[in-house]
Amino acid sequence: MSLFDAPVDLGRLKLVVAYDGTDFRGYAIQRDQRTVAGEIKAAIEKITQTPVELTGAGRTDAGVHAWGQVVTGDIPSGFDLRKLQNSLNSMLNPQIVIRSAEFVDADFDARFSAKWRAYRYTIVNRRALDPFRDRYTWWVETPLDFKRLQLGSDVFIGEHDFASFSRKGPTGSSSVRLVLDSRWVEEGDGILRYEIRATSFCWQMVRSIVGTLVDVGIGKTKPGEIMGILAAKDRATASQVAPATGLCLWEVGY
After folding, report:
1. Is residue 135 within 8 Å of residue 22, measured between CB atoms?
2. Are residues 242 and 149 in the same domain?
């Protein structure tokens, strides 16, 4: 009998994970694709010699990054978590880093226990591309009006139907979401950061919002038109989807 077949006492493991999503086909496991969850799962099973099913707080798309992704799964309860964290990092870094590891209550779930999720989207707004930020930002050469960006972003706060700002989900699924915060931050030297926090997000919602807000920033769309785009509930009324490179799952609240 292998260790994978032997009965063991299990504990609920909670990981906080950061990763560079550039070379992954997203977070969620996909057959014959290199994914973040797939790499973590394989590493945990190699170390613990026990099968594990992982749940992530956010199903980030291909090319999207994370600083505060939360992952849960059940592993043998007697494991030394400091050694586990060190072993995982030696196998997974630098593209995936386990920032913390702890045992939590058995009913804790990375996805369903979450009260909110926060994303950041970073733009380099200069005449020349920045080679040191290219993997983690969207280079927009056309000057952006910060006041217009902020006016446009304010509209998203509250509960709205985000059908115009997301890819269509499964039949019968709702695109109504509650946004708790939506703002722009000027970091200086042409670096602009969009921050949004919501109880949950639709597929490609943040990137669709950023793409539309960039059109607001360059004057192609007026800030006052955002409410009409929301009301239309039609993806064709919004702008292009911003590139995955600039998006980062920053934090998950419980």
Report:
1. yes
2. yes
CA dihedral 42, 47, 49, 52 (to 10 degrees): -50
- Angle, in degrees to the nearest 10, between helices 36-48 and 81-92: 130
Q: How many CB atoms lie within 10 A of CB 3?
A: 10
For residue 195, is pLDDT > 80? yes
- Report the catalytic residues: 61
Please check the confidence at residue 251 and state whether its pLDDT lies above 90: yes
pLDDT band at 132 (very low <50, low <70, confident <90, very high): very high
Torsion of CA 142, 162, 35, 75, to 10 degrees: 140
Residue 40 structural domain: 10-104
Last residue of a domain, one of 72, 104, 136: 104
Beta carbons of 150 and 217 less than 8 angstroms apart: no
Beta bridge partners of 181: 197
- Answer whether residue 2 shows pLDDT above 70: no
Q: Which two tokens stand for residue 186?
A: 């000027």
The closest of 194, 214, 239 to 148, measured between CA atoms, is 214
Q: How many CB atoms sit inside 10 A of residue 25's CB?
A: 17
- How many whole angstroms separate alpha carbon 251 and alpha carbon 254? 10
Return the amino acid letter for 4. Answer: F
110 inside domain: no
Single residue among 57, 84, 104 that ends a domain in this structure:
104
| Of the candidates 69, 41, 65, the residue with the CA atom closest to the CA atom of residue 53 | 41
